[in-house]
Structure formats: C-alpha cells, structure tokens
Amino acid sequence: MLALAPGPRAFQAHAESRLFGLRQDRYSFWVHWDELARYLLPRRYKWLVTPNQHNRGSPVNRFIRDNTGTRAARILASGMLSGISSPTRPWFRLQIRDYTTDTTNPVNLWLEEVKSRILRVLAESNFYNSIALVYLDLSVFGTSAMLIYEDYEDIIRCYNSCAGEYYLANSERMFIDTCYREMVFTAAQLEQKFGKDVLSDSVKMALQRGGASLQTEFKVIHAIEPNRGGWGVPLEFRYAEIYFLEGERATEPLRVGGFYEYPGIFPRWDIVGNDAYGRSPGMDALPDVKQLQQETLRKGQAIEKVVNPPMVGDISLKNQPASMIPGGVTYVTGASTVGFKAAYQIDPRISEMVEDIREIQERIGLTFHNDLFLMISQLDTVRTATEIDARREEKLVMLGPVLTRFGDEALTPALRRVYSIMTRLQLLPPPPPEVQGMPIEISYASMLQEAQRAVATTGIERLLTVVGGMAAIDPQVMDNVDLDEATDEYASLLDVSPRIIRSRKDLEAIRSERAKAEAQAAALEATLPAVEAAKTLSETPVGGGQTALTAMLGGGGLPASRPI
User: Fold this and answer.
1) Which residues touch 440 (CB under 8 Å, ≥6 apart)?
2) Where are the domains of the chain?
3) What is the largest CA-CA distance in the chain?
4) 456: pLDDT confidence band, cut at 50, 70 and 90?
C-alpha cells in the first residue's frame, strides 16, 4: 500500500483504520449494552447505525413488563442532576490557592463574577438538558458521552451521543482522549453543517432533486484524537477533528479542524483496569430486572388461568351455541352430565408472588440508590431535621467515589471548556494582575460536599455558642476568638457571595469612623457638667445688673444705668 501524503486524506485513512480496531475493543460492551437497553432503556441505544431505516419510532420495549428498573434509573439520574449540578443553584466554586483567606479581596470578587457569568451561559444554553441525559446513560450503561462546541447563538452547544454510536480510547493517564462516532445526517443537514462544495456527488444529487430526497440519510464518521501532526491541523491545537462520509473514499473529508482543549466529557461510573468503558448500577441490577420481568409474566399467566382457565366440554356441545360469559345460558339435554368445567384446578398463591415481586423491586431501587434520593418520602414516621441529615450523610458515603470521578471526568472538563470558549470570545472580565497565569481550582457544592461543610459550620456555631455563654460570666473570654476570621470562614463554608461580606479595608474604615464618633461623643459628654454649671451661673443675679458668671469673669457685665 502506498503511503498517502500528509494532509486531510492521510487523516481520513488513519481514522478509517483506527475505527476498525476501536470496534473490536468495544464489541463485548456493545453486546452487554444491548441487553441493558432491552430491559432498562431501549430508546437510548443503537445496535447498528444504519441510514434510511425509517423505523426508529417502532415499539422497542417488548422485553419490559414491569418498568421498575427504568423508573429507578430515572430517579437516580434526576437525583444526581439536582444534587450535583442543579440548574437552580450555584453548584461549583472557583478558587486560587493562597487567595482564599479574605473572601472580599479583588481576586475572590473576580472569581465570583466569572462564576456568575459561566452559570448564566450554562443556563441559557442546552447544557442542563444534555447533562441530564449524561446522568441517565451513566446510571444504566456506565459510560456517557457529550461534546461541547462553540455556538454563535448560545455561546456553547452540547451534543449527546447514545450508546452504540461512539467509540472511546484511553490515554496513558486513563483519561479519554479519543472519541469516534458513527451517525447519520440527512442531505439537508449535511449542506447546512458543511456547505455544498465538500459534499459527495450522491449527496449533491439528493440536494438537486429536492423534496423528499432532502431527507435521504448518509452515514458520517466523526473522529477526535490527539493531534499527531501531518494531518493538516496546526500543532497549536492539542486535538484534531475530522468528519467524512463512510464508504466514499474519492471525496475529501467534510471537515478537518482542531481544539485547544478536549471538547468532550466522557464520565464513567466505575472502571476496571485499562477499560475505556465503565460499569454501572444498571449492570448490577440487570439480574433482578430480568427476574422481575419473568415473575411478572408468570403472575399474569397465573391470574389469567384462574380468571379464564382452560376448559373441557362434552362432545355433544361441539358446533352447538354455547355461552361462557357471566349470566349466559347454554341449552343441552341431560344437563346433569353434560357441560363445561375447568381442565384442571390451580392454586397460584398470588399474594406470595406479589410479595416476592415487591422484594425484587426494592432490591432494584436499592441498587440504583433510590433510597438516598427518596429518603424522606420513604420514612414511615416523622423524623427531626438532624436525624434526616445524619441519614443523608451516611448514605452519601456510598456515592463518594462516584461523585469524585464524575467531577474529574465530566464537570471539571466541561467548566474548563466553557471557560476557555468564553475567554477567547472576551466574555470574561480581565483577571487581577496578581493572579495572571495562576491556575484556577474548582470545587463542587454537591450534597456530599454540603454535608461535609455542614459539619464544619456546626463546629463554628457550637464554639460561638459556648464562648458567648462564658462571656456572660467573664467578658474577657471573647479575646480568644477572632470574630472577623470566624465570619469569613463561616461565609466561605456556606459559599456566600463575597459581595455580601465587607472587605477588611472597608471594615477598618467603618470602625475608624465609629471610633472617631465615639471619641467626640465622649468628649462632649465630659463637657456637659461645665456647660450646665455655666448656664446656672449665667442665670443667677448678684445685683448691679450682673450675674454670677459675669462677676466671676471680672465684672464684664452691662452697667446698671447710663450716665447723663
């Protein structure tokens, strides 16, 4: 085989070859995903990416007779969305090391403004709709995929790929740095996305015919991997991207480009060894889910046999009018010996079957951690807020490693991608000079982190309560506590906006003005006795038209009479 000259065609040949190897690596997971989808989430999986099937809306839940597993997966996904990255509250914090002591310094005020702008971009884009699907795929298939692109209308635009569409590969740090996708585009979509000039002849013919031909689908391969050079992508881009039509080698790639940072997030619930794909609660719950479907089927069959059992009848009733409905009458001769009866009698013990099904449903809910997110509704008695918090903290320990991994593999890359896009578009305020070039650290305000912070805030509250009680006996005990530092620490743990807490500089100015005002008031109060005494003397006559005050001052009062 002749080596292709460096450039986009060489990139396409490389991508076609590597896709073959990625298919082999994914095969066992692909088969397992098919079984998971059949019993849990049939609409979020594609067995084969094939154009022009026209059957995507056909029923795909033939294996599901009890949807407990599907509902449990959705509860887990919804609970993680609201608990980790809720669109209704700030769910992350930005920090720079060594600039976190004073919450009101310019650095932290800048970080707060950056966080506010990022949250606004996320809210005004389709980020939260897309991340909700990420949680759902993660809970069932153990792996999820979402790409974040720059968008002219919404700043960012997120794209989800379902299981069966994407192929992944790890870097040496076990970070997903390679993603290949198979997908279908209509002729109209290809023209909108790539322009008409780069399209193949078959696509151009469909566009020329117009009408229904605009909906003709074509299979497109999309690849993103580290930029190794020689593909027509400048080396300033860390990652290279290519789109091309499958099976049309004579055409040039649809698009070749690059990224400064990785544009996708590929979280995994749990991994083993060097696997690029993860394990999930859905995989753990699958045996129970399959057992539930089987027992639900058998229970239905048992009820059907009791309500509508198989019957036997006398041969003389064949081809004769007969009624099996309630109140119906069948006329026969010799009714004492001729009639219908059940072929056999069964006692299906429906109550025992229902109880066993309920136990299976509970196991499925526990596997999907529904007891964590539905904890309050499942309590049989009213509990105190303290007890509920203790139960929540105990259960959140089980999700601790998952939350940590999700932050590392999904939330942090997503926020870095959005921050980089906004920086290039000049949508963020310039950083203070003292932190130019310093890395920004990200922490998350998930339920687990909030539970951990609640322990710290409780310690501060208890300390101040005890010291306040002791101060009633000996006020000097307050000298042991730095109340300003306690306020800053408490505000930091509660993730209060730095704009609410005054800076140390403003605080010192306020206290200085207050001290001056108090000193002036004290001086004025000290002169009040002398003023009152002078007033009394000025009002006391001593004769000759003088008062006691003027007499004390040397008789400087007005004369009693004028000389003639």
Assistant:
1) 94, 95, 96, 111, 419
2) 8-64+125-278, 504-551
3) 163
4) low
